[in-house]
Amino acid sequence: MFMILGVPGPLLFGQVLLGLINGAFYAMLSLGLAVIFGMLNIINFAHGSFFMMGAFVSWMLLNYLGIGYFPSLILAPIIVGAIGILLEKTLISRLYKLDHLYGLLLTFGMSLVVNGLFRNYYGSSGMPYDIPGVLNGAQNLGFMYMPIYRGWVVVAALVVCLATWIAIEKTSLGARLRAATENAPMVQAFGVNVPRLVTLTFGGGVALAAFAGVLAAPIYSVNPNMGDNFINTVFAVVVIGGMGSIIGSVITGFGLGVIEGLTKVFYPQASATVVFLVMVIVLLARPRGLFGRMV
After folding, report:
1. Which of 73, 142, 253, 271 is most buried by a 10 A CB count?
2. Do residues 219 and 58 make contact, with C-beta atoms less than 8 angstroms apart?
3. What whole-number distance in Å separates Cα of residue 214 and Cα of residue 135?
4. Separation in Å, CA 219 to CA 213, 214, 241
5. pLDDT value at position 172?
6. How far is it, in rounded angstroms, from Cα 201 to Cα 77?
7. CATH architecture of 3-285
8. Partners of 147 in the beta sheet?
9. Where are the domains of the chain?
10. What is the per-residue pLDDT across 213-223, written as a single tens digit (0 to 9) for each?
11. Which H or E run contains 145?
């Protein structure tokens, strides 16, 4: 067995892979948060609940309707995104002209209600969601065995993050979104339906969280608390990357996942706090975040 820095190679690479897996979820969840905050200026504290809802919807589609994993990757984000649109139209849209604190309090309350409803109906114990057969097993890479599904999660997350960045930064729709955040009345004067654009943006951010939830379902047990395990770290990722920064959320999410994984190898006691230690250091050196813009 070969060693790297005194650590068995398979153990080190295994933790790097685990860090990439966690980083994939950090990136997708923080990306949704960044889209919603960057375009709507709403701090969505219910984002972890939408992540959990994505996993639950995929579980319900499978167990109640017999709809498998791959269709759920499309259907669950659409369903949860539609729920997000309904909540935006009925509740969140009333807060856009108020202080950020009101949006944070509303979405925090929404999170408590949603989590409580699922907990009362399904309980707190996790429910299994099987890995699809085509993604089962492991691949021998020579230096380690990589579970195929976990590799799929990293690739799928990278593709979704890249597609989202292209849609926002390189398309006419993204240009309208960015312009609407700077000067909504002017954009509306050019015939763009800004309220509809805002609603679809919120729904899209929620759908990203739900997509991450579907990917997470076979790895973690499907339970009402699964979003709570990620959301604190995800907010730290958003702050480190820069509030509202798309590329900052993606790079920071994957980077912190790997740092967290390596910390579990070399100094396990700090693995639960290393992300927040990095956040403190970054905020002291660069208060707007690594990729944040000057206000």
Report:
1. 253
2. no
3. 14
4. 10, 10, 26
5. 84
6. 13
7. Orthogonal Bundle (1.10)
8. 138
9. 3-285
10. 999 999 988 99
11. strand 145-147
Return the structure tokens found at 128.
Answer: 């299994």
The CB density around residue 280, as the number of other CB atoms within 10 Å, is 12
pLDDT at position 54, please? 96
Residue among 40, 68, 29, 21 at smallest CA distance from 211: 29
What is the spatial distance between Cα 253 and Cα 124, in angstroms, rounded to a whole number? 27
DSSP string, 167-191: HHHSSHHHHHHHHHHH-HHHHHHTT
Q: What is the pLDDT of residue 217?
A: 93
**Beta-carbon-side half-sphere exposure of residue 184 (alpha carbons within 13 Å):** 12
Q: Where are the alpha helices (DSSP H) in the chain?
A: 9-40, 47-65, 69-90, 100-122, 148-169, 172-182, 184-189, 194-216, 228-241, 246-266, 274-285
C-alpha to C-alpha distances, 158 to 76, 162, 164, 283, nearest whole angstrom: 19, 6, 10, 26
- Six token digits for residue 126: 């996790």
Both tokens assigned to 124: 């707190």
Locate 66 and state its tokens.
């017999």
Distance CA(72)–CA(83), nearest Å, equals 16
